Amino acid sequence: MALVRCEELTIAYEGQTVVRDLSFQIHQGDYLCIVGENGSGKSTLVKSLLGLKSPMKGRIVLGDGLAQKEIGYLPQQTDVQKDFPASVREVVLSGRLNGRGIHPFYTSRDRDHATAMMRLLGIEGLKRSCFCDLSGGQKQRVLLARALCATKKMLLLDEPVTGLDPIVTAEFYQLIKEVNRSSGIAVVMVSHDIDSAVRDASHILHLQETALFYGKAEDYRHSPVGRMFLGSTGNSEKTDIEFPERAETSEKRGMEFD
């Protein structure tokens, strides 16, 4: 059963239709990259998946026990986020808030899960640091850990590498790929980096009001729209970047999503 099923979806932004008659599905373990030019409706689609924006037409159906409050979300960074005056541990723990219901206090299970996510992303040593004092790459790791604390099944990432330098960007892409492949959590990422999207993702959704393409990344590479955006050869294959400080795999770290 699909985690998410979009059926003939039409959505608008500021009164203008940006996505029309869109149908696609997201399954457990998928890594879907949403690409397209500015104004093509990528971020608006993410808001609709989160239940923050109602479609003009069509519907979004959640399945396999997924609830909207259980979707982990990493939005585009804002100035407010960058200056948030809280410790790393407090920010990561806040990802458990939606699961608290009427209970106002974190449990030992919540705290253990937050610690496991910080350890997984290599930021446990920063847990007492103030979030606003971190580098851009460290902040994105903290926010990714927070999003992981909120979900067991699906992550939505809206242009998560904006403003990061190329080395930190490559490392962050590697982190996302590790999380997806080792945990089975579905990843849906809005990205302007089509080359990296095709290299890492299992599926591509290319938007331009109507879906120019939806399907497997390999098929996108050889499609007319894929060849146009990737270059005439459609060659986006790159070798994976290895980071010595991340020699341990997620499995060795005992990754847990409970």
Outline the secondary-structure elements.
Elements lengths: L3 E10 L2 E11 L4 E5 L6 H8 L7 E6 L8 E4 L4 H4 L5 H6 L14 H13 L15 H14 L4 E5 L7 H18 L2 E5 L3 H7 L2 E6 L1 E7 H5 L2 H7 L28
Parallel strand pairs: 3-7, 3-8, 5-6, 6-7
Antiparallel strand pairs: 1-2, 1-4, 8-9
Helix pairs in contact: 4-5
Task: Report on the architecture of this protein.
By secondary structure, the chain is an alpha/beta fold. Helices cover 32% and strands 23% of the residues. The protein has a six-stranded mixed beta sheet with strand order 5-6-7-3-8-9, with helices on both faces. A hairpin with a 2-residue loop joins strand 1 and strand 2. The C terminus is likely disordered.
